[in-house]
Amino acid sequence: MAKLLEGRPIAEKIKEQLKEEIENLQVKFKTMPTLATIQVGENSQSAIYLKSQKKLAKDLRVEFREHLLSAATTESELIDYIGKLNQDKFVTGILLQLPLPSHINSKNIPIHIDPLKDVEGMHPENVGQALFGKMRIGSCTALAVMELIKSTGVDLYGKEAVIVGHSEIVGKPVSLLLLDKFATTTTCHIATGQRGYLPTHVKRAEILVVAVGKPGIIQGEWVQEGAIVIDVGINKVGDKIVGDVEFEKAFERAGYITPVPGGVGPLTVTMLMRNLVEAAKLQQEGLSPS
Ligand code: NAP
Fold first, then answer.
1. 166 C-alpha to ligand 1 centroid (Å)
2. Mean pLDDT calculated for residue range 259-286
């Protein structure tokens, strides 16, 4: 039977470290980090995430500025708006709430955010830093996944890691970060599923990270005995929230497994704040004469 990998206790520890770092920033540079979030139109999905961001910002005494733009905002108007926040010296980090209205292509936006203010780690410059193993600001979800794996104390060197899903926000950055730890990585995607090879890959995973958004796509019996299973998926089934992995069966076989909800989710917003603190340090290092 697996050990449950819960996000909240790890998030609490990181939160204490962040409080200390924020105090140090205040003493050293007389500044507190400010997070500016942009939302285009009202959205119930982002409202939940926004609430947890606000709560954590308050706990950490980080200034939280909300910018709500009309649902009719065009892509170029949004880019102009971001440009103004890039120039605002009181803004430390810029966060774009997703989803955006369908007339805006969300993939076109990250490049317009100042890489030093890109608290979601999606600017190509920050993505590139990850490629060179020098990442300081990275995808919040990918960082959350790595913290959960780290908490097991398992050495990743040479381990078989299988990542299911290859999105820019989760699957690809997780693959890079695991590769950077010398895990042997396999990244599965829609074509893997279509060829029927998903079980073959999943069965040899010592580390399994699943970020697809399809409930039960990973059958519990595919999970290797003792594997670390990180389920990133969030799916609403009836009135329940479930992950992508068949939890009960996987729980019997895995060494460690994240619950959904309560695994990756609580850590993601903490990683956002860690990115904000990192952004503040990078900006101050740039300005500091030393
Ligand atoms: P996404 O952009 O839709 O990506 C899903 C990925 O799954 C794609 O790479 C897709 O491949 C792949 N896929 C689809 N069907 C497949 C199949 N049958 N076999 C193998 N791969 C398949 O989603 P995302 O943003 O990465 O999010 C994934 C899930 O994680 C969602 O449930 C989301 O809600 C959740 N999530 C949770 C957090 C958190 O903090 N806990 C954060 C972010 C996301 P193709 O692109 O080739 O179709």
1. 7
2. 95
Q: Which of 143, 212, 272 to mutate to test the pocket of ligand 1 (most atoms within 8 A of CB)?
A: 212
* Nearest protein CA to atom 15 of ligand 1, as residue: 190
Neighbouring C-beta atoms of residue 290, cutoff 10 Å: 3
The pair of structure tokens assigned to 64 is 């939280």
Residue 168's CB is within 10 A of a number of other CB atoms, namely 13
> Which residues does 89 contact at the CB level (< 8 Å), separation at least 6?
none
Cβ of residue 162 lying under 6 Å from some atom of ligand 1: no
| Count of residues in the chain | 290
Whether pLDDT at 288 is above 70: no
256 - beta bridge partners? 3, 228
Query: How far is C-alpha 169 from the chain's CA centre?
Result: 7
Instruction: Say what the pTM is.
Output: 0.96
